Amino acid sequence: MPAPINTRRRLKELLRKIAIELCNGLLQSGSKPYVLAEEATVVIAPHQDDESLACGGLIARKRHEGLPVHVIFITDGSASHPGHARFPPPALAALRRGEALQALACLGVERSAIHFLDEPDGTLKAITAAHREALVRRLARQLQEIGAAELFLPCNPDGSSEHDATFGFVMDALALIPRQPVVWQYPVWSWWNPVLLLRRWFATKDCRALPLEDFRQHKQQAIRCYQSQIAPLPPDSAPALPAHLVDIFLADNEFFFRHQPPAPSP
User: Rounded mean pLDDT of 61-71?
Assistant: First the structure.
């Protein structure tokens, strides 16, 4: 019985790899160049690692040019290893916070520009209405204080309930502030589900590519800081993130989809 199961798994992995390569080729051929904005940028990350995986090259390049970049982490990252024998949620949250600070130091982000909202990981989809309203207002205040010209957040949908919930929080927060930044969506888990990536591709009218070029090493160093995610956390034998997923983010380009706000009702 194990042999057919293993065969199906290998076939599924092969099909996913082919689909990812096709999506990558489609985005490379159909995207326009991303042009750096010279004002403040905010990257919203549901978890500690999303910012480096999807936007590490962007962050490093902007900081190299002396442009301000803020990173806001929504959750504490404590649900990546449920029931872990050595790292209960508080210890895991502390570990991931430390990794995030190291990763962003590699990308050149100042400590004062790193913000942790510390929402319990794994709970965003089910928070109460009152809690949601408080979180949205907290986000709105932070975005207004920063005065960002550009904002980067996960695609909607992105194949993760935490990522999708984050998108909703940010959209509601933006409705509360007078200055509206340009909003870009970045793919993370939608790379692992190419159907979602294709849906985003066909739904958008503006996809941009940013070559890693000389900033590949900075991004690699940042991703390596997240050992709790890219390597097994003993006694676990497998990493939280599949190795092939991590490899996707070390390809030649980062891709961003410009968010098109819905047309106002007549």
Answer: 97
Kindly give, in sequence order, each residue whose CB lies less than 8 Å from that of residue 77, ignoring residues fewer than 6 positions away.
47, 48, 49, 92, 93, 96, 97, 100, 121
Question: CB-hemisphere CA count at 13 Å for 16?
Answer: 16
Structure confidence at residue 53 (pLDDT): 98
C-alpha 48/C-alpha 96 separation (Å) is 6
Average pLDDT, the chain: 94
Domain count, the chain: 1
User: What are 78's two structure tokens?
Assistant: 């404590």
Asked if the model's pLDDT at residue 2 lies above 80, the reply is no
Q: Please report, for the domain that includes residue 210, its CATH number.
A: 3.40.50.10320
Bridge partners for 33 per DSSP: 209
Does residue 4 fall inside a structural domain?
no
Tens of pLDDT, residue by residue over 137-178, are 999 999 999 998 999 999 999 999 999 999 999 999 999 999
Q: What DSSP letter does each residue of 34-65 carry, written as one string?
A: P---SS-EEEEESSTTHHHHHHHHHHHHHHHT
Contact 24, 251 (CB under 8 A): yes
The answer to whether the beta carbons of residues 209 and 114 sit under 8 Å apart is no
Residue 114, helix vs strand vs coil:
strand
Nearest 5°: the CA angle 67, 97, 154 is 60
Structure tokens at 97: 């916070």
> Distance (Å, rounded) from C-alpha 78 to C-alpha 99?
13
